[in-house]
Amino acid sequence: MTNEATGTPRNVVVILLDSLNRHLLESYGGTEFATPNLKRFAARAQRFTNHHTGSLPCMPARHDVLCGALDFLWRPWGSVEIWEDAITFDLRKKGVVTQLVTDHPHLFEAGGENYHTDFSAWAYVRGHEDDPWKTRLDPSWFGSPALPAMASPMERYYETSRTYFKSVEDFPGPQTMTAAADWLRDNATQHERFFLFIDEFDPHEPFDTPEPWASMYDPTWEGPKVIWPPYTPAGGPSVPDVRTGQQIRANYGSKLTMIDHYFGRVLDALDANNLWDNTAVVVMTDHGHYLGERGGIWGKPGVPIYSEMGHIPLMIAWPGAKAGDQDGLTTTVDVHATLCDIFDVTPSHRTHGYSLVPVLSGVAQSGRHHVLTGIWGREVVYIDDQRKYVRAPVEGNRPLEMYSNRWSTMPIHAYPGLRLPRPDRRASLAYMPGSDIPVIRQPFAAGDNVPFWANMSNFHGDHYFNRVDDPLEENNRASNDERETGRAALREALREIDAPLAQLERLDLL
After folding, report:
1. Helices marked H in 123-234 — which ranges?
2. What is the per-residue pLDDT for 4?
3. Which residue in 188, 210, 195 sits closest to 268, CA to CA?
4. 394-438 residue pLDDT tens
5. Omega before 172 within 30 of 0, i.e. cis
6. pLDDT tens digit string along 77-96?
7. How many C-beta atoms surround the C-beta of residue 371 within 10 A?
8. Which backbone phi and psi does 431 adopt, to 5 degrees?
9. Which alpha helices (H) appear in 325-435, and where do they start and end?
10. In this structure, are residues 394 and 508 in contact, taking their beta carbons and an 8 Å threshold?
C-alpha cells in the first residue's frame, strides 16, 4: 500500500501482548473470539500480514525488540549482554523519556536482568504466573472473583497470588493496562518526547479470568476451570479428553477478550490526549500459542515452529498514514530498527533489523528478503515469500555451543535444582560478530545438562512448505530437490549474519 504520511512521529507507544494468536484476532479474520478494541485499533493502523517471529520464546523475543539482535543462534535465554545496550540506554542519552509498564515476571528474575534498568521509570504489577509475590494464601479469600480452578501439575506461585485478587481490577492484566492509560493521561503532554513500552503478559497462561469473561465461551462447563494448558507435541500425551481441550481453548479466548477490553483504556487515553497525530503506536506479540489446532499440539513444546506459533500479528498506527495492509516480510528485530530510526539512534552493537519507517511513510517496500527464526538448540527456520524451510539438527543435536557473559536462563521455580550449567574448563573466549569484547564460548557434549529449551528433543525431520499454495502449512514437501534449495538458502542466511560455525555443523550445512 501507499500513503501520504506526515513526518517522523515524536513519540512511540509499543504494546506487546504475550502469546497473541494472529489467527484468532478479528482484525486478521478470526471469528471465534471477540476482540473489539484490537479491531478498533486496526481500523486506523497498517496491518502487517507477513510478520514472523525471530528469537523465541519470551525473553529472547524481548531481546529482539529492545536490543535488535537475533540471539537464538548464540544463546537460549538471557539478559542484555555486556557488548550491547537496550535502546533505552541511547534514548536516555538523547533526553527521550522512557517508561515501562508491565506485569511480565521474567523481566524481574534470573535470565531477565537489565532490560528494565535503563528505562527512565518502570512500573511492575505483581502476581502474574510464577511471580514470587506472596508466601501464603489470603486467609480471607472466598473464591471470587478468582473462581475455583484446577491446580497446575507443578507448583506455581500463581495459585497463591490469585487469592489476593479482590476485584476484576486486581488481576494483573487489567492493572497493567489501567496503569499505562493513567501514565498517558498524566505524562504524555508533559515530555518533549517519550517511548512507552507496555509489556503485557496476557493472554499468556494461566488462562484465568473473572466473570463476565470466565464463562463467555464455555458457559456449560461444570467444576473448577482448567487454566493451565499442557505443553505436549503431536502424538504425545495431551488433554484428558476433547471436552477439556474445549475448556482450555475457551479460557484462552476469555483472557484474550478480557485484555482486549482493558486495552481499550489505552486507546481511550490516546484519544483523550490527541496523541495520534504525533505518536506511532505499535501492537505486537512475541509468539503465538498452540491450542490443539495441529494434531493435538498444546502450549509451546518442542516441535517445529508452525504458523500458529511463528506467523504473528503486527499493527502500527502511523501519524498521517491511512489504514491498510503491508505484505512485505518483517520480523521482531525490525521493530527495534524502526525505533532507532524514529529517535535517530545508532546502536553501538551489531543488529539485524530493517527499519519500517520507509514502509510506514509510503516511500518504499520492505527491505527484507528472508526471515530467520528459532529457539536455541532446536530447529532453525528460513522464511521468504515463497517458502518456509525448517531444518532439524543431525542425530545427537551436536555440536551445541552457547555464547554469553551473563550466565543465566529462565528459572523454573517448581524445580529449583534445574539450572543453567556453569561454564567449565572446556570454555574458551570468542567474540560476537561486530564486537571486540571477549565472550565465553561454552560447548556442550552428549550427556551434558543443557539449557532448558534444548532438552525438548522431539525432532521430526526437515519441513518444506510452499507459502503460496499451502499457507496453512498442511503439506510437507521436503523432497530432495526442495530440501536442497532450502538448505542452500538457509546456509547463506546463516553465513550472512556470521552465525557460529557449530550451528552450520549441527544442522549439517557445511
Report:
1. 158-161, 172-187
2. 41
3. 188
4. 988 999 999 999 888 887 877 777 777 889 999 999 999 999 999
5. no
6. 999 999 999 999 999 999 99
7. 24
8. -135, 135
9. 333-343, 357-360
10. yes
> Quick one: cell of 509?
550445512
Residue with grid cell 519441513, as numbered in its chain: 463
- C-alpha to C-alpha distance for 23 and 306, rounded to whole angstroms: 12
Q: Answer yes or no: is pLDDT of 2 > 80.
A: no
| Listed residue (375, 373, 336) closest to 355, CA to CA | 336
Task: Give the tens place of pLDDT for each residue, 95-139.
Answer: 999 999 999 999 999 889 899 999 999 999 999 999 999 999 999
Question: In sequence order, what DSSP letters do the residues of 452-474 get, joined into one string?
Answer: GGGG-------EEEETTT-TT--
Cis preceding linkage at 399, omega within 30: yes
Give φ, ψ of 47 to 5 degrees: -100, 120
Confidence of residue 237 (pLDDT cuts 50, 70, 90): low
User: Which residue bears the cell 499451502?
Assistant: 470
Is 10 within 8 Å of 279 (Cβ atoms)? yes
- The predicted structure's pLDDT at residue 456: 60
Chain centroid to Cα 154, Å, comes to 23
**Mean pLDDT of all residues belonging to the chain:** 93
Residue 261's pLDDT is what?
98
DSSP 107-125: GGSTTSTTSSTTSSEEEE-
Residue 235: predicted pLDDT:
67
Report the candidate in 71, 66, 67, 58 with the shortest Cα–Cα distance to residue 439: 71
Which residues pair with residue 430 across a beta bridge?
439
Strand partners, 429: 440
- State the Cα–Cα distance between residues 100 and 36, nearest whole angstrom: 25
Looking up cell 506487546 gives 16
Query: What's the CA gap between 299 and 289, in Å, rounded?
Result: 6
Question: How far from each other are the two terminal CA atoms of the chain, in whole angstroms?
Answer: 40
Query: In this predicted structure, what is the pLDDT of residue 186?
Result: 97
Distance CA 294, CA 314 (A): 23
Per cent of the chain over pLDDT 90 is: 83
Query: Is the bond preceding residue 132 a cis peptide, omega within 30 degrees?
Result: no
Q: Enumerate domains of the chain plus CATH numbers.
A: 9-510 (3.40.720.10)
Cβ atoms of 105 and 62 within 8 Å: the answer is no
Handedness of CA 226, 230, 234, 238 (dihedral sign): negative
Helix (H, G, I), strand (E, B) or coil at 114: coil
